[in-house]
Design brief:
The complex is a heterodimer of chains A (175) and B (160). With 175 residues, chain A is an all-alpha fold. Chain A has two domains: 49 residues; 113 residues, no CATH class. Chain A has eight helices and no strands. With 160 residues, chain B is an all-alpha fold. In chain B, 84% of the residues lie in helices and 0% in strands. In chain B, helix 3 packs antiparallel against helix 4 and helix 5 runs antiparallel to helix 6. The longest helix of chain B is centred in the N-terminal third of the chain and has 35 residues. Chain B is elongated, with a radius of gyration of 20 Å. Chain B starts with a helix and ends in a 5-residue tail after the last helix. In chain B, 38% of the residues are buried. The chains are: A mainly alpha (175), B mainly alpha (160). Chains A and B meet through helix 1, helix 2, helix 5, helix 6 and helix 7 of A and helix 1, helix 2, helix 5, helix 6 and helix 7 of B.
C-alpha cells in the first residue's frame, strides 16, 4: 500500500518534470510560468530550510527533555503560551518551517495546546513580517489583528489539544 | 534572513567547540529529517507552482476590488486559503489594494487566511501531524480569520 502510493507520487512528479522541461524546450508559456513558480519557491526554501533543520538538530542534542517538559509540557502554566508565542515571533519563513519545529518540540515533551499555539502564532506574529505589515497597512490594522487573533489562537489551541488528548491522539513517529 | 545564517553559524561553532560528537549527531539528525520530509516539500512546491499560475495576483486584485463586503470577504478568504505568498509579496499587494479602495475587512480576511490557512502546505503538515489534525487546524484557522476580519471591519467603521 505504502509502496504503491510512493510509486504513484514519483510517477506524478516525473510527469510534472517532463511537462516543465518540454514546456521550456517548446516555449509553451503556461508550462514555463509554472516552472518559474516552482524554481522561485524552491530557491526561497533552500535559503531557509538547511539552517532551520540544523537548528532543529542542535536543539535535539543539546536541550534536555526535562527542560522542555518543565516549561512547555503538561505541568507548565500559562507562561508556556507566552514562550511559544515569543518563539514564534522569531521564527522565519512561515508555516512550512513551523511544522518541523513544532513536531520536534512535541517529541521533546511540549504539550499539544502549546505546539498548536506556536504554529498559529508563527503564522500570524513573526516579528519581521509584522513590521513589514505595519509599513503597508498602518499600525492600527496590525494591532487590531494581533489583539483579536492571539487570544483566539490560545483558546482554540487549548480546545484542540484537549480534544486530541481525549481521543488519545498519537503523533506519527520518525519524521 | 542574514540573522538566521549568523545565528546558525555561531551556534554551530559553539556546539563544535563544546562537543564534536554531539555536533556531528545534530547534523546527522538534520540531514535525516530533511531527507524524510523532502517528498512532502516537493509535493507542496508542485502544488504552489500550479496554483499560483491558475490564481495570479492580477486575478486576486480584480476580484477583491470589485465585490461587495460579504462576497468580498468570502472570495478573499478563499483566495487567501488556497494560495501561498511570502509577506514581502502579500503586504505590498494589500497596500496597493487598500489605496484602490478595497476595504480593511476584505484585506484582513485575505491576509489572515493567507498566513494561517494552508491548503498548499497540506502535504507537509499531513506528513508531521496526520490528516485529521491538519484538517481540524485549518478549519479552525479559517473561522478565526473570519472573526478577525469582522472585528477589523467594526473597528474601522466599515461594518455597522
Amino acid at each position: 500500500m505504502k509502496n504503491r502510493n510512493g510509486f504513484l507520487k514519483v510517477s506524478i512528479f516525473l510527469i510534472y518534470l517532463a511537462f516543465i522541461i518540454g514546456s521550456v524546450i517548446y516555449k509553451f508559456n503556461p508550462g514555463q510560468q509554472i516552472g518559474h513558480n516552482f524554481l522561485s519557491f524552491l530557491i526561497e526554501m533552500l535559503k531557509i530550510l538547511p539552517c532551520a533543520f540544523i537548528l532543529i538538530g542542535l536543539f535535539e542534542v543539546w536541550v534536555k527533555k526535562e527542560t522542555v517538559e518543565k516549561h512547555l509540557g503538561d505541568k507548565s502554566r500559562f507562561m508556556a503560551y507566552v514562550w511559544s508565542i515569543l518563539l514564534a515571533g522569531t521564527t522565519v519563513g512561515g508555516l512550512y518551517v513551523a511544522f518541523p519545529v513544532a513536531y520536534t518540540l512535541y517529541h521533546k515533551g511540549a504539550k499539544l495546546s502549546v505546539i498548536f499555539t506556536y504554529i498559529a502564532a508563527s503564522a500570524i506574529c513573526r516579528i519581521p513580517m509584522t513590521i513589514f505589515e505595519i509599513s503597508f497597512m498602518g499600525i492600527e490594522f496590525t494591532l487590531v489583528r494581533l489583539a483579536v487573533s492571539i487570544p483566539l489562537v490560545i483558546i482554540s489551541s487549548i480546545w484542540l489539544g484537549g480534544y486530541l488528548e481525549k481521543i488519545e491522539f498519537k503523533m506519527m513517529e520518525g519524521n | 534572513m542574514v540573522y538566521l545564517y549568523i545565528l546558525t553559524g555561531v551556534l554551530l561553532l559553539v556546539s563544535l567547540i563544546k562537543d564534536r560528537k554531539k555536533t556531528a549527531r545534530a547534523l546527522k539528525i538534520a540531514t535525516k529529517k530533511i531527507y524524510h520530509i523532502l517528498p512532502a516539500f516537493l509535493s507542496m512546491l508542485v502544488l504552489v507552482s500550479i496554483i499560483l499560475f491558475l490564481v495570479p495576483n492580477s486575478l486576486i486584485s480584480y476580484y477583491l476590488g470589485g465585490s461587495g463586503k460579504l462576497v468580498g470577504v468570502i472570495i478573499a478568504s478563499v483566495f487567501g486559503s488556497i494560495t501561498l505568498m511570502p509577506g514581502f509579496i502579500s503586504f505590498p499587494l494589500c497596500g496597493i489594494l487598500l489605496q484602490k479602495g478595497v476595504s480593511y475587512t476584505v484585506l484582513s480576511a485575505f491576509s489572515t487566511t493567507l498566513m494561517m490557512v494552508g491548503v498548499i502546505t497540506f502535504p507537509v503538515e499531513k506528513a508531521y501531524f496526520g490528516v485529521k489534525v491538519t484538517i481540524l487546524r485549518n478549519v479552525m484557522s479559517y473561522f478565526i480569520a473570519l472573526v478577525i476580519a469582522l472585528v477589523t471591519g467594526i473597528y474601522f467603521g466599515e461594518i455597522m
